[in-house]
Design goal:
CATH class: Alpha Beta
Order of helices and strands: EHHHEEEHHEEEEHHEEHEHHH
Mean pLDDT: 74
Distance between the termini: 41 Å
Largest sheet: 5 strands, mixed
CATH topology: Nucleoside Triphosphate Pyrophosphohydrolase
Number of strands: 11
CATH superfamily: Nucleoside Triphosphate Pyrophosphohydrolase
Shape: globular
């Protein structure tokens, strides 16, 4: 199978062990050697997948995901999910770290991005040996996620004009979390960064390094594109995405997803009508469900609905409860960020 390139999002918090003094070249070479060995077993895994697997076909047709190997936002990699500590409004350009020289703003969040493919995701994050790979990566590189593909997903907590949050029920034909409730989402597309790029051209990391602002724009715009394709809501009806944080899905070895809040100018009735008309990716879900914002704020592990949510939706709900991006006055809320974080740890 030809290797399709996709952008990946490795939200590893780089923890270098004391006394680890390898050169970058040696470390990268050893990491590449381990990954090459792992890829030898990946084609067999792919061959076992059903041909009607919607997730697999979707990945084959796309080019990708974002991956970041480091982040400056605090988080807890061993929890489900790990989250950032603040929300950031969508910015039209990349905020660069200029070292306090007065040349520009420092970053709210720093994502270090690379390239991966669906085959590497199947052979690492989705592998039965994922735990072994994490242990080896921690021992050899001081980073448990160093040997994982870690493709970055995006998800959107979509809130309608009548204050209803949109959930969709995943098709039973998808590879992950079939039949469970999810938020709209998907992956940033690397080729969207390079308009006019020929289909046969391959994207390289060096190319992305020259297109930082476009990469940031794609990260934020991709979640709106996914909402349009899955829920059939026009882009003109969506507000600017607000990045709430990043959740790690421990059912796929800590695969990261950037979770956004997006307002919608349409009512839930209007959104429902558009959904049933069918969007570009209508086959990925079978139903649409609306919860009031009050219900979402009260959701926790004791709620019957909690077991119906897929891991990415749980992470997004907890981030929404923690960040409260659509609330100006948070002083009267019964749930504080501390209690939300306590729920994450449980």
């Amino acid at each position: 199978m030809e290797k399709e390139t996709e952008m990946e999002g490795n939200v590893a918090f780089r923890r270098r062990k004391e006394g680890l003094h390898e050169t970058k070249g040696n470390t990268d070479s050893r990491r590449a050697e381990v990954l090459r060995h792992q890829r030898d077993q990946i084609d067999e895994v792919i061959g076992e997948r059903q041909h009607n697997d919607i997730d697999l076909n979707s990945y084959k047709q796309r080019e990708g995901n974002l991956r970041d190997s480091q982040t400056s936002t605090p988080g807890c990699g061993n929890q489900d999910p790990a989250v950032g500590s603040s929300a950031a409004e969508a910015q039209p350009c990349l905020q660069r770290d200029v070292g306090g020289k007065g040349e520009g703003p420092t970053p709210i969040l720093t994502l270090r991005l690379g390239l991966t493919c669906y085959r590497d995701f199947l052979g690492t994050n989705w592998s039965q040996r994922a735990g072994e790979l994490c242990q080896r990566a921690e021992a050899e590189f001081g980073d448990p996620l160093a040997l994982l593909a870690q493709p970055l997903g995006v998800g959107g907590v979509l809130c309608t004009a009548d204050r209803q949050v949109v959930l969709i029920r995943r098709s039973q034909q998808v590879a992950e979390a079939g039949g469970l409730l999810d938020i709209p989402g998907g992956h940033p597309e690397p080729k969207a960064v390079f308009e006019g790029l020929d289909e046969m051209d391959k994207i390289r990391v060096e190319m992305l390094q020259r297109m930082e602002e476009a990469v940031v724009r794609e990260l934020f715009s991709s979640v709106c594109t996914e909402i349009r394709d899955e829920v059939n809501v026009p882009l003109c009806c969506l507000g600017e995405p607000v990045l709430m944080g990043i959740a790690l899905n421990n059912t796929s070895a800590g695969r990261p997803s950037a979770e956004f809040y997006i307002s919608c100018s349409l009512t839930s009735t209007e959104v429902r009508e558009l959904y049933w008309q069918g969007g570009v990716e209508a086959q990925e879900s079978t139903d649409i469900v609306f919860l009031s914002q009050t219900e979402v704020l009260r959701l926790d592990q004791s709620a019957p609905l909690w077991s119906e949510l897929c891991p990415s939706a749980k992470g997004a709900v907890l981030l929404y409860q923690l960040v409260l991006p659509d609330r100006e006055d948070k002083s009267n809320l019964s749930q504080t960020p501390a209690t939300a974080l306590d729920k994450i740890s449980r």
